[in-house]
Amino acid sequence: MNKKIKLAEWNSIMYQDEKNIESVFLPVGSFEQHGPHGPYGTDSYIAEYITRLLSEKTGIPHLPCVNFGCSDIHKEYRGTISINKNSYISFLSDIFASLLDGNYKNIFVVNGHGGNIQCLNSLADRFKNKLKIIIINWWIIGREFEDFKYEERHHAGAEEMSVLMSLSEKVVYKENLVDTPVSDYNPYQVSKISQLTTTGSIGTTTTASAIRGSDYLFKLLEKIIGKYNLGVHNANISC
């Protein structure tokens, strides 16, 4: 029978029938500016996309994406929605507590936004004696490959845009791709993105392409599955 990997599509009967499932994916992203070429939903789109591909490959079902995150440094751009870190931790803590109540044991958080990392790590530590929470920061794992140069691996850069283009080229405003000089910086010591760039993006973007994104994703997915032994969590969903 076909496996339903989107938990949002399950009904109460399916949840009762699949009590043996102990692992789920949870994609998390943000709603923030990504320069003149990237949509505000970039981080969430990519987190959802990678999560769906991982679910299809492993059989582990996934939850809907948390589309808002900690984006304070981007708030000077109209439309950016940022969640206070304490509120974000509290909200996700309730999600994890609910999953714990549902007898889930392994939560694989596919994170699409660097500003969420500190909160996610804090939550993983908070629940460490109750849940196994694994934070998958895809772009950090991707550093193990040489598909993209240093100047392409920044906010709204060629790496991120290539992955997004492999999902859909239509959502990227390719005519607006712009390159911005990169200097040494620590994003956690910056209060406004304008301290780093005048365009909203950082580094090289004009080299982005769907083909580069697809080739990169193929290797990235295999690396993630192997790194976290996702194959052993396959639950053989019957519905």
Describe the structure.
Helix content is 34%, strand content 8%. The chain has 7 helices and 3 strands. The relative contact order is 0.20. It is mostly helical. The chain has helices at 12-17, 42-58, 85-101, 117-126, 138-141, 158-167, 210-227, and strands at 23-28, 106-111, 132-137.
Summarize the structure.
This protein has 239 residues and is mostly helical.
Features:
single chain; globular; three-stranded parallel sheet; mainly alpha; Rossmann fold; 7 helices; 8% strand; 239 residues
Fold blueprint:
Elements: H1 12-17, E1 23-28, H2 42-58, H3 85-101, E2 106-111, H4 117-126, E3 132-137, H5 138-141, H6 158-167, H7 210-227
Helix pairs in contact: 2-6, 3-4, 6-7
Order of helices and strands: HEHHEHEHHH
Cα gyration radius (Å): 18 Å
> Residue ranges: pLDDT <50 for 5 or more in a row?
235-239
Structural class: mainly alpha
CATH superfamily: Creatininase
Roughly what is the average pLDDT, rounded to an integer?
94
Strand content: 5-15%
The CA-CA distance between the termini, in Å, is 7 Å
Query: Which bin fits the share of residues in helices?
Result: 25-40%
- CATH classification, class level: Alpha Beta
Strand order of the largest sheet: 1-2-3
> Shape from CA axes?
globular
CATH architecture: 3-Layer(aba) Sandwich
| Number of continuous helical runs | 7
In CATH, the topology is named Rossmann fold
